[in-house]
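Hey, I'm writing a tutorial for new members on how sequence and structure tokens pair up, and I'd like a real worked example in the thread rather than a made-up one. If someone can provide the structure for the chain below, I'll link this post from the tutorial.
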Amino acid sequence: MLILIVSILLLGVIVAIASKVASRGKNVEDAPIKVEQTCATCNGTPETKCEQDCMMEASTKPIEYFDDEELDVFSGRTSDSYTDDEADQFSDVLYTMRQDEVAAWCRSLHLRGIELPDQIKDEVYMLRAQD
């Protein structure tokens, strides 16, 4: 009986040592999780990349078009000067893009000197808030 108890204890010690050796250097809890900060990770804290940084970054890159070159004719117009038909042209572009592209589209319009029509601003802001 004593040999059986000693054997079980010895086996437990061997398993504990093997487990400790196998997990050495692989302690996941101690490893910091790194999240690459992008414009999509903005949550208002100083550690995140936010709208102002994204706008500055975007201004140094070529302007991205979203198959909306026809909107360039509205450059320099104020947001309250659009007719409903003209605002519909913006809506057509808006509803053909993915939701995660809306913020980039708004930056593109801003860099091109195009203001969003007042008629669709609420829709745009709601889509951006859901992103």
